Amino acid sequence: MTNSLGSLIRFILPLALVYLIYNSFGAVAALLALIVFILSSLILNRGMMLQNQASKKYQKGDFEGALNDLKAAVAKDPKNAKIRSTYAFLLLKLGYHDEAGVQLEEAFKTAPEADKNSMKVTKALILWKQGKLDEAIDLLTELIKDYETTNVYATLGFLLIEKGDLERALEFNLQAKDYNSSSPIILDNLGTTYFLLGEVDKALETHEEAMKCKPNFPEAFYNYARVLEKTGDIEKALYMTRHALTLRFWNTSTVTKEEVEAYMKTLEEKEQAFQAELAEKKKLAREAAVSQDDAQEEPVNTQDE
After folding, report:
1. DSSP E strand boundaries for the chain
2. Cα pseudo-dihedral 253, 256, 262, 268, rounded to 10
3. 197-223: per-residue pLDDT in tens?
4. What is the spatial distance between Cα 239 and Cα 243, in angstroms, rounded to a whole number?
5. What whole-number distance in Å separates Cα of residue 218 and Cα of residue 129?
6. CA angle 231-163-159, nearest 5°?
7. Distances (CA, A) of 262 to 37, 161, 222, 224
8. What would the pLDDT profile of 145-188 be if each residue is shown by its tens digit?
9. Structure pTM?
């Protein structure tokens, strides 16, 4: 039975019951039954209502407010695995990875089998943040055999980069690109792998592809900036780095805001040094041009013959 059909039945059956009560006992009894139905629906759906409220707060940037609403939603509907796993994921993103692990394990106890695969991606991220990188990689390596999604490819791709297993990361991220060549995360993973292997031209080409997919996460612009710096385009690298700092950094980001700020400072120093060197070269060129003009002037002979 689909969720939509189930929801329809849950709506129609009480109305049918109210109608029967109306025919058997009259309008007053039917009205009372309708009130009971509405109140019970509100109570039973309180968890979902809080989850929807949390979603609105999240969209407005009130992340702690969203977290509090999800915590309340879990308290109201503790057996709802979807609500609890959503709560676990936001806990993880905000930096509470140990509590996220506790909540996710509880969610696994009541989750339908169909939902557990997507939850394993969150579990892998939690393991990574807990310093259990090999376990996270093993979990997703096993998962992807039967559950291929862009999210799994993207997550395992950067975990392999984190591991430093660049040859395996390259092979896997090329496979990921074959699966979804329009995912900016997958392209960023591949471009970063090329960069770390010293293949700057391929890294540049791949990151330019990623930019066309309009990424909205800071790593894409930071990693692109590193490639641009390597090609000598410091000005554009600075632009990309500054843009990266306008985006939201999460606990699941593969680079911290502080790291990007430090990198921007390094680029600014390089840019200042470059501009100073350029100014000095222009000054020397002007002085050389003046000297050449002076040397070309013929002295005027004023001595009488």
Report:
1. none
2. 30
3. 999 999 999 999 999 999 999 999 999
4. 6
5. 18
6. 85
7. 59, 22, 12, 16
8. 999 999 999 999 999 999 999 999 999 999 999 999 999 999 99
9. 0.79
